[in-house]
UniProtKB/TrEMBL annotation:
The chain crosses the membrane at residues 79-100. Keywords: Membrane, Transmembrane, Transmembrane helix. This is Uncharacterized protein.
Length: 102
């Protein structure tokens, strides 16, 4: 009976060790998977931040280059003024030419 006691304890300890090893291995695998997912999410976040920055830059450029109603009205006024000056110069030239011919 004395022989069976230590043997039973040794078997129980061996079983306990095996169970702990299995659980520890399982936990290590889960931790590795979580770390892999974390790295993947970090890469995705980095990519999304880069894309967002590119979109913000494009939007900023578009806002700088956009033509507003005020810009169009100013261009129209300048164009009308230029055409008026050209018409006046042409009229003066024709008048001068007509005067010279008479």
């Amino acid at each position: 009976m004395h022989q069976e006691g230590p043997l039973t304890v040794e078997l129980a300890l061996a079983e306990l060790r095996r169970g702990m090893d299995v659980r520890l291995t399982s936990l290590e695998g889960q931790l590795a998977l979580l770390l892999q997912r974390d790295e993947h999410h970090e890469r995705q976040i980095t990519d999304q931040v880069r894309l967002l920055s590119e979109v913000e830059d494009r939007l900023t450029r578009a806002e700088r280059e956009q033509v507003t109603r005020g810009h169009l009205e100013a261009r129209f006024r300048h164009t009308v003024a230029l055409l008026s000056m050209l018409a006046a110069a042409a009229s003066a030239a024709v008048t001068l030419w007509a005067t010279v011919l008479n």
